Amino acid sequence: MFNALRKGFGLTAKTMFRPAVTTQYPEVKRPTQPRFHGRHQLNRHADGLEKCVGCELCAWACPADAIYVEGADNRPDERYSPAERYGVVYQINYLRCILCGLCIEACPTRALTMTNDYELSADSREAMIYTKDRLLAPLPEGVKPLPHTDAEVAARGVDYYQGAWAQNPLASFTALGTPLGAVVQEGDQHDPAMAPRGHVGGPVDGPVHGEG
User: Fold this and answer.
1) Which residues contact 153 (CB under 8 A, 6 or more apart)?
2) CATH class as words, domain 40-135
């Protein structure tokens, strides 16, 4: 017991005469590490479309049940994401969130990331529930506000995902009534990695959305 007391008081005595390191917060803020887990952000594509597809995988992965998502279908005259669906309601309760980062690992499109912002405080419980408008990244400069139309998106010719099959995942089922396995998108006929799931001569698992 004496040795334990000696070690404890010795450590205290050793640190008593060291100069104090005081950060004059909030005027001076200590920089965070590049991979610091701070406030979340819902990202956009370069043309302003939202990366979130409303899949709710982040909510399922959250161990604290802090995320609530509702998905909705895009319409030809009202498109918010390049996918079939988008997140119409998105909430994160920072009274529950433990900033573990499991939600961003579960996101298949890199729609959800974490910033270096750690100043999360409010005067009420309601203000700590961040809604989509507080989480969504700002529009790039000069980009038209959402929603866009299908014609506008098609005219840009942007490949949001990996290859034609990922860009139009329903093509293998509905392309002009052609049976599954008989459709070959132009430019993909020599790339077996771009074949749809179950396509004859292609891999069992197609490309993973959001990689790259």
Assistant:
1) 47, 49, 79, 82
2) alpha beta
Token output for 74: 């895009």
Token pair in block for residue 65:
């049940």
In the chain, where are the structural domains located?
40-135, 161-206
Residue 114's DSSP bridge partners are 40
Could you tell me if 112 and 52 are in contact, meaning their C-beta atoms sit under 8 angstroms apart?
Answer: yes
Each residue's pLDDT tens digit, 72-125 = 999 999 999 999 999 999 999 999 999 999 999 999 999 999 999 999 999 999
CA contacts within 13 A on the Cβ side of 1: 0
Structure-token pair, residue 129: 């529930």
Distance separating alpha carbons of residues 45 and 144, to the nearest angstrom = 12
Q: Tens of pLDDT along 120-166?
A: 999 999 999 999 999 999 999 999 999 999 999 989 888 887 665 55
